[in-house]
Amino acid sequence: MTSPAPKETFSIRAARPDDGEVIVRLIEELAEYERLRNTCRAEAHTLREHLFGPKPRAEVLLADRDGEAVGFALFFHTFSTFACAPGLYLEDLYVRPAHRRLGIGRALLERVAGIAVARGCRRLEWAVLDWNSPAIDFYRRLGARAMDDWTVYRMDGPDLLRLARAGARDEENSQNDQ
Predict the structure, then answer these.
(1) What CA–CA distance (Å, rounded) separates 73 from 95?
(2) What is the residue extent of each domain of the chain?
(3) Residues 41, 61: Cα–Cα separation, whole Å
(4) Which one in 33, 149, 161, 174 has a CA-CA gap of 20 to 30 Å to 120?
(5) Would you please indicate which residues are annotated as catalytic (active-site) residues?
(6) Using CA atoms, how far apart are residues 77 and 45, in angstroms rounded to an integer?
(7) pLDDT tens for residues 115-156?
(8) What is the C-alpha separation between 165 and 40, in angstroms, rounded?
(9) Is the pTM of this model over 0.90?
Protein backbone atom coordinates (compact mmCIF):
# COMPACT_ATOMS: atom_id res chain seq x y z
CA MET A 1 0.00 0.00 0.00
CA THR A 2 1.38 3.38 -0.96
CA SER A 3 0.95 6.36 1.26
CA PRO A 4 -0.70 9.49 -0.12
CA ALA A 5 1.55 12.22 -1.44
CA PRO A 6 2.40 14.77 1.24
CA LYS A 7 0.15 17.80 1.22
CA GLU A 8 1.92 20.91 -0.02
CA THR A 9 2.47 23.29 2.88
CA PHE A 10 2.64 27.03 2.81
CA SER A 11 1.67 29.86 5.11
CA ILE A 12 0.04 33.24 4.63
CA ARG A 13 1.24 36.17 6.71
CA ALA A 14 1.09 39.94 6.84
CA ALA A 15 4.13 41.57 5.27
CA ARG A 16 6.67 43.28 7.50
CA PRO A 17 8.90 46.29 6.76
CA ASP A 18 11.89 44.03 6.09
CA ASP A 19 9.93 42.32 3.28
CA GLY A 20 10.23 45.36 1.00
CA GLU A 21 12.83 43.90 -1.37
CA VAL A 22 11.05 40.56 -1.81
CA ILE A 23 7.72 42.31 -2.45
CA VAL A 24 9.40 44.44 -5.12
CA ARG A 25 10.79 41.29 -6.79
CA LEU A 26 7.32 39.74 -6.81
CA ILE A 27 5.83 42.95 -8.22
CA GLU A 28 8.47 42.96 -10.97
CA GLU A 29 7.68 39.32 -11.82
CA LEU A 30 3.98 40.18 -12.00
CA ALA A 31 4.72 43.16 -14.24
CA GLU A 32 6.73 40.89 -16.53
CA TYR A 33 3.90 38.33 -16.65
CA GLU A 34 1.35 41.06 -17.42
CA ARG A 35 3.58 42.46 -20.18
CA LEU A 36 3.84 45.74 -18.28
CA ARG A 37 7.45 45.62 -17.10
CA ASN A 38 8.23 48.95 -18.78
CA THR A 39 5.66 50.66 -16.52
CA CYS A 40 6.89 49.14 -13.24
CA ARG A 41 8.56 51.65 -10.92
CA ALA A 42 8.50 49.65 -7.69
CA GLU A 43 11.19 50.54 -5.15
CA ALA A 44 11.56 48.98 -1.71
CA HIS A 45 11.98 52.27 0.20
CA THR A 46 8.86 53.79 -1.41
CA LEU A 47 6.88 50.62 -0.85
CA ARG A 48 7.90 50.53 2.83
CA GLU A 49 6.76 54.14 3.25
CA HIS A 50 3.34 53.44 1.74
CA LEU A 51 2.83 50.13 3.54
CA PHE A 52 4.37 50.83 6.94
CA GLY A 53 4.89 54.59 7.21
CA PRO A 54 2.91 56.99 9.39
CA LYS A 55 -0.06 56.86 7.01
CA PRO A 56 -0.25 53.37 5.43
CA ARG A 57 -2.00 53.35 2.04
CA ALA A 58 -2.15 49.60 1.40
CA GLU A 59 -1.48 46.22 2.95
CA VAL A 60 0.30 43.11 1.70
CA LEU A 61 -0.11 39.46 2.52
CA LEU A 62 2.75 37.13 1.61
CA ALA A 63 2.58 33.42 0.88
CA ASP A 64 5.66 31.59 2.18
CA ARG A 65 6.66 28.10 1.11
CA ASP A 66 9.81 26.39 2.31
CA GLY A 67 11.10 29.67 3.73
CA GLU A 68 10.60 31.58 0.47
CA ALA A 69 8.00 34.20 -0.41
CA VAL A 70 6.20 32.74 -3.44
CA GLY A 71 3.16 34.98 -3.78
CA PHE A 72 1.47 38.12 -2.55
CA ALA A 73 -1.79 40.01 -2.37
CA LEU A 74 -1.78 43.81 -2.15
CA PHE A 75 -5.06 45.49 -1.17
CA PHE A 76 -6.49 48.70 0.25
CA HIS A 77 -9.76 50.18 1.48
CA THR A 78 -12.36 51.76 -0.77
CA PHE A 79 -15.78 53.19 -0.05
CA SER A 80 -19.05 52.66 -1.90
CA THR A 81 -21.41 55.61 -1.89
CA PHE A 82 -24.34 53.46 -3.02
CA ALA A 83 -23.75 50.75 -0.40
CA CYS A 84 -22.67 53.43 2.09
CA ALA A 85 -20.07 50.98 3.30
CA PRO A 86 -16.36 50.25 3.03
CA GLY A 87 -14.88 47.74 0.64
CA LEU A 88 -11.50 46.32 -0.22
CA TYR A 89 -9.78 46.62 -3.57
CA LEU A 90 -7.34 43.87 -4.48
CA GLU A 91 -4.71 45.67 -6.52
CA ASP A 92 -2.60 42.60 -7.21
CA LEU A 93 -2.63 38.87 -6.58
CA TYR A 94 0.38 36.92 -7.80
CA VAL A 95 1.86 33.48 -7.28
CA ARG A 96 5.15 32.48 -8.87
CA PRO A 97 4.53 30.01 -11.73
CA ALA A 98 6.42 27.12 -10.10
CA HIS A 99 4.12 27.36 -7.07
CA ARG A 100 0.76 27.57 -8.82
CA ARG A 101 -1.98 24.95 -8.54
CA LEU A 102 -1.13 24.33 -4.89
CA GLY A 103 -3.97 26.43 -3.46
CA ILE A 104 -1.78 29.44 -2.70
CA GLY A 105 -3.72 31.93 -4.83
CA ARG A 106 -6.98 30.72 -3.38
CA ALA A 107 -5.60 30.94 0.17
CA LEU A 108 -4.42 34.52 -0.42
CA LEU A 109 -7.82 35.50 -1.82
CA GLU A 110 -9.64 33.73 1.03
CA ARG A 111 -7.53 35.64 3.57
CA VAL A 112 -8.27 38.99 1.88
CA ALA A 113 -11.98 38.09 1.81
CA GLY A 114 -11.81 37.23 5.51
CA ILE A 115 -10.20 40.59 6.27
CA ALA A 116 -12.93 42.33 4.26
CA VAL A 117 -15.70 40.56 6.17
CA ALA A 118 -14.03 41.14 9.56
CA ARG A 119 -13.76 44.87 8.78
CA GLY A 120 -17.40 45.20 7.77
CA CYS A 121 -16.68 45.59 4.07
CA ARG A 122 -19.55 44.81 1.73
CA ARG A 123 -17.48 44.10 -1.36
CA LEU A 124 -14.13 42.95 -2.63
CA GLU A 125 -13.21 44.12 -6.10
CA TRP A 126 -10.30 43.81 -8.51
CA ALA A 127 -9.44 44.18 -12.18
CA VAL A 128 -8.14 41.48 -14.52
CA LEU A 129 -6.48 42.00 -17.87
CA ASP A 130 -8.93 40.77 -20.50
CA TRP A 131 -6.36 38.41 -22.09
CA ASN A 132 -5.53 36.68 -18.79
CA SER A 133 -7.88 33.72 -19.20
CA PRO A 134 -6.20 31.56 -16.50
CA ALA A 135 -6.90 34.27 -13.92
CA ILE A 136 -10.42 34.90 -15.23
CA ASP A 137 -11.22 31.18 -15.05
CA PHE A 138 -9.78 30.97 -11.53
CA TYR A 139 -11.87 33.90 -10.29
CA ARG A 140 -15.04 32.56 -11.92
CA ARG A 141 -14.54 29.18 -10.24
CA LEU A 142 -14.50 31.01 -6.91
CA GLY A 143 -17.80 32.76 -7.67
CA ALA A 144 -16.54 36.17 -8.82
CA ARG A 145 -18.36 37.86 -11.67
CA ALA A 146 -17.17 40.35 -14.25
CA MET A 147 -18.64 43.83 -14.10
CA ASP A 148 -19.05 44.08 -17.87
CA ASP A 149 -21.16 47.23 -17.65
CA TRP A 150 -18.31 49.23 -16.11
CA THR A 151 -15.20 50.56 -17.82
CA VAL A 152 -12.06 51.33 -15.85
CA TYR A 153 -10.53 54.73 -16.53
CA ARG A 154 -7.08 55.85 -15.54
CA MET A 155 -5.27 59.16 -15.50
CA ASP A 156 -1.58 59.39 -14.70
CA GLY A 157 1.62 61.15 -15.66
CA PRO A 158 1.35 64.50 -17.45
CA ASP A 159 -2.44 64.30 -17.75
CA LEU A 160 -2.85 63.88 -13.98
CA LEU A 161 -0.46 66.76 -13.28
CA ARG A 162 -2.22 69.01 -15.79
CA LEU A 163 -5.63 68.35 -14.24
CA ALA A 164 -4.31 68.88 -10.71
CA ARG A 165 -2.67 72.16 -11.70
CA ALA A 166 -5.89 73.35 -13.34
CA GLY A 167 -7.76 72.55 -10.14
CA ALA A 168 -5.18 74.38 -8.03
CA ARG A 169 -5.47 77.46 -10.29
CA ASP A 170 -9.26 77.37 -10.03
CA GLU A 171 -9.05 77.08 -6.24
CA GLU A 172 -6.57 79.96 -6.03
CA ASN A 173 -8.78 82.15 -8.25
CA SER A 174 -11.80 81.27 -6.12
CA GLN A 175 -9.99 82.28 -2.93
CA ASN A 176 -8.82 85.55 -4.53
CA ASP A 177 -12.41 86.40 -5.42
CA GLN A 178 -13.50 86.21 -1.77
Answers:
(1) 9
(2) 11-149
(3) 20
(4) 149
(5) 139
(6) 22
(7) 999 999 999 999 999 999 999 999 999 999 999 999 889 899
(8) 25
(9) no
